[in-house]
Amino acid sequence: MSAELVVVGGGQAGFALVAKLRKMGDGRAITLISNERQLPYQRPPLSKKYLLGELELDRLLFRPQRWYDDNAVSLVLNTNVLSIDTVRETIELDDGRTIPYANLALATGSYAVRLPTELGGDLDGVYAIRSTSDVDRMSKEFIAGRTVLIVGGGYIGLEAAAVASKLGLRVIVVEREDRILNRVAARSTSDYFYRLHAAHGVRILQATGIVELMESNGHVDGARLTDGTEIHVDFVICGIGIRPHQQLAAESGLKVSDGIVVDKTCRASNSKIVAAGDCACFPYRETFIRLESVQNGVDQGEAAAVTLYGDEVDYRPYPWFWSEQFDVKLQIAGLSAGFDRSCTRPGLRSDSESTWYFKEDRLLAVDAMNDSTSYLVASRLLKMGVNPRYDQISDPNFNLKGLLKNDHSKRD
């Protein structure tokens, strides 16, 4: 087998890259390699509708098999890439094959962090949510009346907690920081979701960690916590973060630093190779960042495709994220990292509000809980580089929509 372009990874970024090339009329031979059995599929519903059983696998797929056949994309599924030889410009697969490439795209994504073995992370009944197979394995555990322990109070953990609660399970969340969402949100957003989960019977233990998971016949059946208490659990879901799949790149000599380092056009340290999605670390403002989101996977995958097509443009992301928990839709515009002050605005409904993040006089981001107006206004302001004054936003009577006329704000 030979290919002009080899894409490693069947997630959002890998598929977006391939689809964009074909849309632009690129006719080169493309081979897409995925270590999963399924056709490339979307992942956000895994911790929501797929876990609830409301969405079948075929509805997760980006495209059916026919699309790949019609677009001359060769799929290699259930196969791992063992190594990259950047001198010979080949990759070695775990089935013994070697594939040459003219260009290589790495969209290797990320993996879920798991509890260490010494804490019981390898026991039966301990799961993470990263793939359909993860969810399929744990689905048998979701029986009303059972108790699930969720380790980690980030968005993935809280989404899983909401699903488990809806299915009638007793839910306990442990978060070692002093509040949930501590690393990604201001206290007001953390408090909002704490109240939301508490109202639905979810027990959240903050400033609490795992000393060890206890077992019976090799299956987890309890946990010893840092506050000295012991609790019975029927199974455990780990939501303690993800890490980029960068080992393959590192072993081939590519530059890595919390991800595969790329330039503003998505090229890695080897000019024949691009990278995109969760695995890519790219320049943003005065630093390098990784973005773990569907939006970044799509946009950066398409930007990498443009680079491969020969029309290089700088990748300039407009970050946005979303989460669904119970009857709340959270929409996030921008990146709040580095904020030095924030304020909270009430929404039009009793269950809606927004948190606005500033650094000095610059608007950085907004968390909008059931508040689409605040989200839409903030998104447009961030894209236009228009900064509202903090005293305007912190005034609950101030009309946000007036900012879009640029009457009361200043451009960055």
Q: What's the tally of helices?
A: 10
Structural class: alpha/beta
Helix content bin: 10-25%
Shape estimate: globular
Give, in spatial order, the strands making up the sheet with the most strands: 3-2-1-7-19
* Average pLDDT score: 94
Largest sheet descriptor? 5 strands, parallel
Distance between the termini: 52 Å
Report the radius of gyration as a whole number of Å. 23 Å
Share of β-strand residues = 25-35%
- The number of distinct β-strands equals 28
User: Uncertain regions: pLDDT < 50 for 5+ in a row?
Assistant: none
Summary tags:
5-stranded parallel β-sheet, single chain, 31% strand, alpha/beta, 412 residues
Account of the 3D structure:
By secondary structure, this protein is of the alpha/beta class. The chain is 22% helix and 31% strand. The chain contains ten helices and 28 strands. It has a five-stranded parallel sheet with strand order 3-2-1-7-19. A hairpin with a 4-residue loop joins β5 and β6. α1 packs across α8.
Topology:
Elements: E1 5-8, H1 12-23, E2 30-33, H2 49-52, H3 65-70, E3 73-76, E4 81-85, E5 90-93, E6 98-100, E7 103-106, E8 110-112, E9 126-128, H4 132-138, E10 147-151, H5 155-166, E11 170-175, H6 187-199, E12 203-206, E13 210-216, E14 219-225, E15 230-232, E16 235-238, E17 242-244, H7 247-251, E18 260-261, E19 273-275, E20 280-284, E21 287-289, H8 294-309, E22 320-325, E23 328-334, E24 341-346, E25 353-359, E26 362-369, H9 372-384, E27 386-388, H10 390-393, E28 409-411
Parallel strand pairs: 1-2, 1-7, 2-3, 7-19, 9-16, 10-11, 10-16, 11-12, 18-20
Antiparallel strand pairs: 4-5, 5-6, 8-17, 13-14, 14-15, 20-21, 22-23, 23-26, 24-25, 25-26, 27-28
